[in-house]
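Bench notes, afternoon.
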Amino acid sequence: MTVVSDRAPAVLREYYRILTGGIESYGDGRNLVPLLAEDLHFEGPIAGQRTGAAPFLQGVRGFIANIQKIDLIQEVHDPDGAAVRYDAHLPEGTSRLTEFFTLAHGKIQRLCILYDPADYLAKGGA
């Protein structure tokens, strides 16, 4: 399933391919590791701020386990970053998310995700 367009940086096309590939495909996250900077800085409404790829891999596993489909709404890219807005179809409904990426050396250096955490959890997000 293609989420972002061919205009998106390769690292993001692969990131969304993994996110939509299902939990069996995700496994322990080893396919995601090469896309992330070791000192990845992640920020989200439920997880708060975290540094390092390992904590992110654990959190994203719950997202992948519950996501049924992603519908792209809007994407914006430049050489150093991107923003992607989408609807995530969860077991109990659809929740809107926006991810902001900082990219360097072909890896995700920083990821900030915005969404309504109460809505996300009510619709089956984890």
